[in-house]
Each structure stands twice: as structure tokens, then as C-alpha cells.
Amino acid sequence: MESSHRRPRADAVRNVERLAGAARDVYVEQGPGAPLEEIARRANVATSTLFRHFPDRQALIRAALQQTYAVRLASELERCKADDNPRRALVDALEAAMGLVSSEHALLIAASEAGLQAVEAGSELAETVIELARRAQDAGAVRDDLVPEDIPRILMMLVSVHATMAPNSDGWRRYLALMLDAIAPRQTHPLPPPVPFVRPAMRV
Question: For residues 109 and 32, is the Cβ–Cβ distance under 8 A?
């Protein structure tokens, strides 16, 4: 009996990939209000093909976010996890995440306006920085009273500074540097107790 779970045809997979890539490019160039027809044209497919794969703007933006994460961030995070210098690994992961947010700000605004409350890669990114923060703390490179779950929260705070800067600005580096100084192991004031960590809605 033939399985009802058929693998997508190769041309369908290519169309999905082209549409996701075109969505990212068009939103960067034209902003979050770019028409879906332009995205279909850029992907060289009919508008009906776009809607067959993505019934609404939200689904298309989600795919664009996932593709952007896979292309721009996933391999960098894997490199950080393989780094034998715990503090450098954590810093590099935070820099990679902030750089992605800076360069993809138009796409993230589009996601927010489409009702997506989170960067779709947020959960995996949070798990990675928690792992790297724990390693850095075990190596004495992060203050003792920090809990690793503080780091994705700090990252979410840092993401918010992009709203105060021109697109593609690297001004976020100033605030990342301030935060890195704040978590360094040295004479510090005691922190209030941590609260339970809720898996992130990495808001824009």
C-alpha cells in the first residue's frame, strides 16, 4: 500500500527555498510592507504558487526567518560550541546573534507586524548561549552569582537597542561591551535572586 506521507517534489522544495530567500531580500530592500506579488516575482514563481506553499504572510516570514538562521547563524553557533576557549565562545555567539539582528532588522520588523512574537530561531539560540554561559562560568570567566539563564535575557535586552539605531549600525557593540564587563568575574554587588526562565519569545 502506498504511503500517504509522500516526500515533497524537488521542484516544490526549490520553490519554497526560493520564496523564503526572496522574502528576506525584498523585506531588506523595501521594508516590512513589501507586497507579496513582488516576492513571488523575485522568486520567479506565480503568485498562486506562493499561496500554495504559504497561505499567509506569517507563514512566509516564518520560513524566511528559519532559512536566514540556517544560512547566517547555525554554523557560527556550532563553531562557538566547538571553541575550547569558553569566554571567547560566549562572546562570539553573542556577537553573531547581534550582528544577525542588525543586518536582518527589516525582516524582524516584518515578523513582528505579521504577528510573530518571536524570532523563530530564538529557542535554539537561547539553548546555545545558556550552554556556552555555563561553560564560561565553570571556567571562571563569568561571575559566580550569574545563572546561565541570565544570558539569553541579557541578549533580549541588547536586541532592543537596534530600534534606536540606523539599519545595519554596529552601535550595538558598545552595549554588548558594557554587558560583558558587567558579567565579568570581579568585585561586584550581589544580585537579587533569579526567577524561573521561560523559553524565550525573542522579541524584536
Answer: yes
Contact assessment for residue 83 and residue 89, using Cβ atoms and an 8 Å cutoff:
yes
d(CA 55, CA 75): 30
Q: Render 1-16 in DSSP notation, one character per residue.
A: ---S-PPPPHHHHHHH
| pTM for the structure as a whole | 0.78
Q: pLDDT tens for residues 91-104? A: 999 999 999 888 88
Residue 178 C-alpha cell reads as 558594557
Q: What does the alpha-carbon distance between residue 18 and residue 12 come to, in Å, rounded to a whole number?
A: 10
Cell output for 99: 550582528
Q: Name 144's Cβ contacts closer than 8 Å, sequence gap at least 6.
A: 137, 185
Residues 6 or more apart whose Cβ sits within 8 Å of residue 133: 90, 142, 146, 148, 150, 151
